[in-house]
Amino acid sequence: MEKRILGRTGLPVTVLGFGGAEIGFQNASQDEVTRLLNSAIDAGLNVIDTAAMYLASEQLIGNAVGHRRQELVLMTKCGHPAHPETRFSRSALQADIDNSLRALKTDHVDLLQLHSCSEELLRQGEVIDVVEAARAAGKTRFIGYSGEEGAARYAISTGRFDTLQISVNLCDQNVIDDILPAAVAANMGIIAKRPIANAVWLYESLPENAYIQPYWHRLQALRFPELADRSQAAAVALRFTLSVPGVSTLIVGTRTPGRWQQNAQIAAQGPLPPEVFASLRNRWKQHVQPDWTGQV
After folding, report:
1. Does residue 234 lie within any of the structural domains?
2. What per-residue string of b and e applies to 117-142 under the rule 16 or more CB within 10 Å gives b?
3. Is this prediction's pTM over 0.90?
4. Owning domain of residue 147
5. Which residues are CB-contacts of 250 (< 8 A; sequence separation ≥ 6)?
6. Which residues have a Cβ under 8 Å from the Cβ of 258 and sit 6 or more positions away?
7. Roughly how many angstroms between the first and final C-alpha of the chain, as a whole number?
8. What is the mean pLDDT of each run of 10 residues along the chain (296 residues)?
9. I need a labelling partner for 199 at 20 to 30 A (CA). Which of 21, 107, 110, 127 fits?
């Protein structure tokens, strides 16, 4: 699988990374996670991204591939919402970091990210101090910010983060003209989350899952002709995000056997033809609404 360099970290990362949210929130079994991740690594994957808040995800990943740590670019995020009032306190973040390392069966991760921390807290500075201290202590090699809009802009402006993880997809394109160029100029590594927009084209009516609903509403307005063939929609969406300048790796979660290999085959086709990418971008620009902000 193709690898790209993750900004100033210098880390060579596969263009397709594994996202650990789904296996946590959907209560995947240890056996299926072990089979899924080991087959993906055998097929060339080297990026695994998870978070303290993804229920048992870190534990499942640690049990499955802890013995293959040297083959991985391992990423996690701190800032657990179990106790919202203390989620980003120094003690809570430090506990998240130490618990993550134990669960992942490692003494360090390659990338530690602040998880959707507000711009207000970023400006106060303590949360950044905590992840910088973790880096100084050898608990992570690099630090990043995962989030959207004003908080992402501020994170870039500080010059203190090595990477930015942000939503980039057919239904979330504002970042392409706004935030991503600033991150590229700062030589930050860019990690695209939700690259296939939660496969929202699969829903004929408004999905019950509120997490998906904003994209569903946008897709009704956008009506991309390129998605008319539903059998090719995932390929168009994945290759669209792969075409965005500056993006190094796309984080896709699954617990379905064989799905990762299918996505890897799509990624192997590379970016979309320039004229198709331009058409998708132009349609967004024609229909974008003021409230179509980046989705956390």
Report:
1. yes
2. beeebbeeeebbebbbebeeeebbbb
3. yes
4. 3-287
5. 15, 16, 17, 192, 195, 238, 241, 242, 267
6. none
7. 28
8. 96 97 95 95 95 96 97 94 73 94 98 94 95 98 97 98 98 96 98 96 94 96 95 96 98 85 92 98 97 92
9. 110
